Amino acid sequence: MRSRPGWRLGLVAAVAASLGFTLLQPASGDAALPTGAPSDTAAADGAEGLGFAVQLGPEQRVIGPTDQGDNPYFSETRNGKLYGYFGTSRTVEWRSKANKRLSHPRVIIDRGLPGKFDDCGAWLNGSIQKYGRHWVAFYHSEGSTGGHGCDPYGKTNVDRMAIVESTNAGLTWRRPNYPNNVVLAGEGATASHGLSNANGGRVVRIGEYLYIFYRTRGERNGASGIHMARALASGFGRPGTWKKYYCTSPVIGTPVCSWNQDGIGGKSTPIGGLSEKSRFVIWNAALNRWIGLDASGKQGFRMFASQVGSGATDDARQYNALFDDHGFPMKWAGSEDVYPLVSTENDKYVDQWGGTVRNARSKQLYAYPSLGGLQGQSCCTGSSFYIYYVKLFPGDKFTKRYLFRREVKVIATDQALNRVELTTYKNRKGKRFSSTEAPKSKSYKRQGAVGYLLAHGEVAGWKQVFDCTRRGDHALYANKCKTGWKPYRRVGFVYPQKTTTASVAVYRCYAKKSHYASSSRGCDGGKREARLGFAMKGF
């Protein structure tokens, strides 16, 4: 895993010495390409070598502010129309207009009956399996425990996975044989009792099996991490058909692995290489890998990838990317950092949870990441797709959630760097704003890309850029905020000099009592204050 930068990175002097040229440049004006400047190939040496590069586009607001949204967003097509699924303690279906905006919400799966395993909540997690008009789906449930009521922040809820069915292609849903519709429960738990967890499950179909990626939470049972279970697709994943993957842990000898533990109460072993937040996995045909996204403010955004799948058919490639010759899960290949953390890993105000905890000092929160195709499909992705996540702006409580997405482009190469678009926005009064995140106010409209910032800080010589605030204005500063300005978040990294890789100048500009960024020396009609460094072009 790459190390995470602090507020300041002290690399400039050391890198200058090692590369044999100065990093000092004037505050404005273009710089000549220095001899010995790093190329994409040299710069990529700092990457983890997973063999692909990622480009994030600008944030796109899907919905918000709203009090809805504590599940990974996904969408499905029914009768030629696209519907999104996104709710709080319930599964709420929305009409998805042109895969851009959500409207006309309706509850399709409500919380369970009092005292039952799902009385605190029931969320679909992008796990709909279609058998003609007979649809089967699996929901994450949360139930109260004796005397505690429903309190996810206090971590007293107990989580399980359960099945629902529809006979009219998703128009209406029912819990079959309720409350005996639980398919997965934590180690030692039953369908209705016990404190261990099995939650957040994402189900995919490969060949003749359904596979579920789920987490145990790790606090009251077993090892934390992502675990797997499977069931024959011909059995529709009904209760009693699921078996967990488990490896013994002998003091002496080799562990014995098998799919032989019961879905309800059985033991399980984490598969490794995949973070708990990245459990919403999806197939990527451009990379021939399964991928998952972990989005947080303290760790940044990380794209996880399975091994590369080989074979003549989609089923073969999808299977071989996950399982070894014995049919057991392989450890995932690792992750790529694709978007920087807000400040530091230990900033207690970032990703601050709790209904009564957030206050004016609270910073950004990111949660419930997912991925989907450009047409809204939840099964698979290609060279371009969307990532989704819930975000809270600084100072906002959970009654003001936003669902954002970004278009992502991936290319199979180890010769390029991960990057994110630096975007300029403008309102009707002519005020401008530049960041790698969209402004909170809807009055600002996207004007275009300034360039692409390096998305992580592990490549030598690049310097971090901060979005800094003062009296309602936002300005970008390299290395650290100017005295009197408060850091809002880290937005990316620029290179001090012009190189073949970093060839787009980024200037800090001022006009109409607002700061913004531009790639033009003329600042698009404003006043040029400084050159921050150089960004990259897009893929």
Q: Can you give a write-up of this model?
A:
By secondary structure, this protein is mainly beta. It has three domains: 12-47 and 417-535, no CATH class; 49-72 and 280-413, no CATH class; 111-276, no CATH class. It contains three helices and 33 strands. The chain has helices spanning 12-19, 40-43, 314-320; strands spanning 53-56, 60-66, 74-78, 81-85, 91-97, 101-109, 121-124, 129-131, 134-143, 158-166, 182-184, 199-206, 209-215, 226-232, 243-247, 257-262, 282-284, 289-296, 300-305, 334-339, 365-372, 380-381, 384-392, 401-411, 419-426, 432-435, 445-454, 463-470, 473-478, 486-494, 504-511, 514-518, 527-535. The strands form seven sheets. Strands 1, 2, 21, 23, 24, 25, 26 and 27 form an eight-stranded mixed β-sheet that branches. Strands 7, 8, 9, 10 and 11 form a five-stranded antiparallel β-sheet that branches. Strand 3 and strand 4 form a beta hairpin. The two termini are 25 Å apart.
